[in-house]
Design goal:
Elements (H helix, E strand, L loop, with lengths): L16 E6 L3 H12 L3 E7 L3 H10 L6 E3 L2 H8 L3 E4 L3 H12 L5 E4 L6 H14 L3 E4 L6 H10 L5 E9 L14 H5 L1 H12 L3 E9 L11 E8 L4 E7 L12 E6 L2 E5 L6 E4 L14 H15 L7 H20 L3 E2 H15 L3 H10 L21
Parallel strand pairs: 1-2, 1-4, 2-3, 4-5, 5-6, 7-10
Antiparallel strand pairs: 7-11, 8-9, 8-14, 9-10, 11-12, 12-13
């Protein structure tokens, strides 16, 4: 992991944080509900290119007095907003985040940070250059069961193997059924990010195969298996399919964690089960807010205290790098190093960046590993080849 500690402006006030939300579609409505339910925030504005959609969302939520508009900076200025929640489509994450950050506003952005690792690196540099917090909402980090699984794993000694099985059969219609790498790009990032949280390890390399079963209703590859080497030597295996009718897993997948001192299981919905060689494993109940509400609580706490949140952009780029590396590995049919993905993305980001201040920040890194981290491919001490 990188030793870099991001610095950002803190807002240590006792009054509710004034928030402008960008995006009023289906997920936008879920975020409006989460903002309404949190007493530490006040939704003061809603931005959407389709003002009719924004008006309908406000009306359905029973809200009054919100400022509506199509410009983040303008709505924020007219409302005295202190932060932005970005619920736009992934392709809009970069421009919306940059506009907000350089308007002096911290941002909580829906996953993924951006469509590509190169754009993710650009956003990490933009956060540095603006001095504002950019946090990515990886909402599945906040499930109580995952919190308990992490605690159980901490009682099992060194972790050798983690597996996730993900089998669902959703008929989305629309763009997802046209995507080339629908499972890896649209869904697997949830589990890839969750294993980083679970282990406190970063990815080193991946070998991935993807394919499309003959009965699939997707145009692109809807099934995949990926094997990651993690920085602590753990191997993480993900196997999933989005055209798997019958006995489906939860949306979190089914997890197994095996360590030197025992094993823990989580079905992705309830509480984990754990069996340790040393005796019973104590699993305390978790009480924090879950899913997007949990991300919102951590975002507000970070702005009040200066504590770096788990979804801070510099770290989160590595979860997206796991996706990009998996797609590359499947296409090339060979193992791909995460460090190579970061190096190529860094060169692309430098070449494409148009803001002089952000480009200067990127250039000051000299290497993405100085900021993002991501270990080189080295064999862990004490491991055996073969």
């Amino acid at each position: 992991m990188s030793a870099f500690e991001p610095d950002f402006a803190v807002l240590p006030r006792a009054t509710p944080l004034k928030v402008v939300q960008v995006g009023a579609g289906g997920m936008g409505r879920a975020w409006i509900a989460a903002l309404q339910a949190n007493p530490d925030v006040e939704l003061v504005g809603l931005v959407d290119l389709d003002l009719a959609t924004a008006r309908a969302a406000v009306q359905d939520a029973g809200l009054a007095g919100l400022v509506l508009g199509t410009s983040v900076a303008q709505v924020a200025a007219s409302t005295g907003a202190e932060a932005v929640v970005n619920v736009t489509v992934p392709a809009a994450h970069h421009p919306v985040n940059v506009e907000a950050l350089f308007a002096g506003l911290p941002v909580l952005c829906e996953k993924p940070v951006a469509p590509t690792v190169a754009e993710g690196l650009s956003l990490a540099a933009a956060a540095e250059a603006s001095g504002q917090l950019l946090m990515i909402s990886q909402s599945r980090r906040y499930f109580h069961g995952l919190t308990q699984l992490k605690a159980a794993a901490g009682q099992l000694g060194g972790i050798g193997v983690v597996t996730t099985e993900f089998f669902k059969a959703p008929h989305f219609g629309g763009f997802r059924e046209e995507m080339a790498h629908v499972l890896l790009v649209d869904m697997a990032i949830h589990q890839f990010d969750a294993v980083r949280f679970l282990l406190d390890q970063d990815p080193v390399s991946v070998y991935c195969e993807e394919f499309n079963p003959a009965w699939s209703w997707y145009n692109g590859n809807a099934a995949a298996t990926a094997v990651f080497q993690m920085s602590g030597g753990t191997r993480y295996t993900y196997t999933g399919s989005w055209c798997a009718d019958g006995l489906e897993t939860s949306w979190n997948g089914a997890w197994r964690v095996n360590g030197a001192g025992g094993t823990a299981l989580w079905d992705g919905a309830g509480e984990p089960l754990a069996a340790a060689l040393s005796g019973p494993v104590a699993l305390e109940p978790a009480s924090h807010a879950e899913e997007i509400s949990g991300a919102l609580v951590e975002f507000v706490s970070a702005l009040r205290t200066g504590t770096v949140p788990s979804g801070e952009v510099h770290s989160n780029v590595l979860s997206l790098a796991m996706v990009e590396a998996s797609v590359q590995s499947a296409g090339r049919q060979e193992k791909v190093l995460i460090s190579d993905v970061l190096d190529r993305a860094y060169a692309e980001a430098l070449a494409a960046e148009r803001r002089p201040d952000v480009r200067a920040t990127l250039a000051s890194w000299e290497t993405p590993h100085a900021r993002i981290g991501g270990p080189r491919h080295v064999q862990p001490a004490g491991s055996r080849a073969g």
